[in-house]
Amino acid sequence: MKRYDRMIFILSLLLSLIGLPVIHTASWKWASISLNNPSYFSKHQLIYLPLSIGIAFFVSIIPINFWKKFSFPFLILGFLGLILVFIPPFGKVSRNVARWIEIGPIQIQPIEIMRFTWIIFLAQFLSLNKDKKLENIRLIWIMFFLFLIAFLLYLQPNVSMLVLFSLSTFIILFISNMDYKQTTFLALILILFIGISILTGDYRKQRIVMSGSIFPLFSTYQQSQALNAIKDGGLFGKGWGRGSLKFYIPEAYNDFLLPVIFEEGGLVAGTFIIFIYVLLVLTIFYLSLNISKKDLFSGLLSMGILVFWSIEITLNILMNIGLLPVMGLPLPFLSFGGSALIVNWAQVGLLMKLGSMGDRK
């Protein structure tokens, strides 16, 4: 491997490997009670990890032009997946939400596949001829597809992913030098749609609990326990497996994994995790700058992956410390989730391919 792709691979692998014991310590009690198997979630993640890495290497050998050529068909497949969640026997409804497709023993979360295809589509669409008239037409099509995604996410409901897609798309459009007036107009419409989505769902309104203070701004039960876990960890933590507040945070192995790391590993472990993420983000950023000079599509593709990961990480951290309302956004590579892990590693495969291109003299 070359310089960029080697670094991206190592950092992603490090996060994934750290995630295995952290998922176990965060989930064993819940898994014991509900599934009678304390290792269920960690074993599930362990099974998906080698599969995901294998997919990454497979993706890394596919020519970049393949993704560019078939970006639109892949986007249509992404939409098909989002629609299938509502159609039995494929769609699986859990806790009154429809977000999964079930094929035998396999469960797939189609929005993760859409994330993969949407980034490729945007990169291809925005790298076309920069003629002003064509640019306006492209923006209309992007708005159409984005609002279609937003509508399907509203029906699931999955407002967290709606926020992620909207914010990430807006930033990608801004980076691609799309007309700022048009992108601002798009942003305002999306903010309005997100606001309506939140206000029309009782369970979503329950997640917005203002604390009445500057810090934290929001204080639900989960966030209060998360902040207590972060504070109780001190500098070096209580030791792996010795944290207790994780037992009071529902599904701590998913969206609230960071407080578990802080409680059991302390400020040292939590800072180390954040440092790895910062290093990963900076590596992809410099890769994007390098390859953008050679190929606009490749530059936008890597920047799209960077934007989605950066926003997801940032929103998760801000949610955990009470600066944002509770939202179901996990930490890439660390948090539990087979579909997310596979797609994240497939994107690593794309970055590895782009990295090998970026290092060529």
UniProtKB/TrEMBL annotation:
<dbReference type="GO" id="GO:0008360">
    <property type="term" value="P:regulation of cell shape"/>
</dbReference>
<feature type="transmembrane region" description="Helical">
    <location>
        <begin position="331"/>
        <end position="352"/>
    </location>
</feature>
<keyword id="KW-0573">Peptidoglycan synthesis</keyword>
<dbReference type="GO" id="GO:0015648">
    <property type="term" value="F:lipid-linked peptidoglycan transporter activity"/>
</dbReference>
<keyword id="KW-0132">Cell division</keyword>
<dbReference type="GO" id="GO:0032153">
    <property type="term" value="C:cell division site"/>
</dbReference>
<feature type="transmembrane region" description="Helical">
    <location>
        <begin position="296"/>
        <end position="319"/>
    </location>
</feature>
<keyword id="KW-0131">Cell cycle</keyword>
<feature type="transmembrane region" description="Helical">
    <location>
        <begin position="185"/>
        <end position="203"/>
    </location>
</feature>
<keyword id="KW-0133">Cell shape</keyword>
<feature type="transmembrane region" description="Helical">
    <location>
        <begin position="267"/>
        <end position="289"/>
    </location>
</feature>
<feature type="transmembrane region" description="Helical">
    <location>
        <begin position="74"/>
        <end position="91"/>
    </location>
</feature>
<dbReference type="GO" id="GO:0051301">
    <property type="term" value="P:cell division"/>
</dbReference>
<keyword id="KW-1133">Transmembrane helix</keyword>
<keyword id="KW-0328">Glycosyltransferase</keyword>
<feature type="transmembrane region" description="Helical">
    <location>
        <begin position="139"/>
        <end position="155"/>
    </location>
</feature>
<dbReference type="GO" id="GO:0008955">
    <property type="term" value="F:peptidoglycan glycosyltransferase activity"/>
</dbReference>
<feature type="transmembrane region" description="Helical">
    <location>
        <begin position="49"/>
        <end position="67"/>
    </location>
</feature>
<dbReference type="GO" id="GO:0005886">
    <property type="term" value="C:plasma membrane"/>
</dbReference>
<dbReference type="Pfam" id="PF01098">
    <property type="entry name" value="FTSW_RODA_SPOVE"/>
</dbReference>
<keyword id="KW-0472">Membrane</keyword>
<keyword id="KW-0808">Transferase</keyword>
<feature type="transmembrane region" description="Helical">
    <location>
        <begin position="111"/>
        <end position="127"/>
    </location>
</feature>
<comment type="similarity">
    <text>Belongs to the SEDS family. FtsW subfamily.</text>
</comment>
<feature type="transmembrane region" description="Helical">
    <location>
        <begin position="161"/>
        <end position="178"/>
    </location>
</feature>
<dbReference type="GO" id="GO:0009252">
    <property type="term" value="P:peptidoglycan biosynthetic process"/>
</dbReference>
<dbReference type="InterPro" id="IPR001182">
    <property type="entry name" value="FtsW/RodA"/>
</dbReference>
<protein>
    <recommendedName>
        <fullName>Probable peptidoglycan glycosyltransferase FtsW</fullName>
        <ecNumber>2.4.99.28</ecNumber>
    </recommendedName>
</protein>
<keyword id="KW-0812">Transmembrane</keyword>
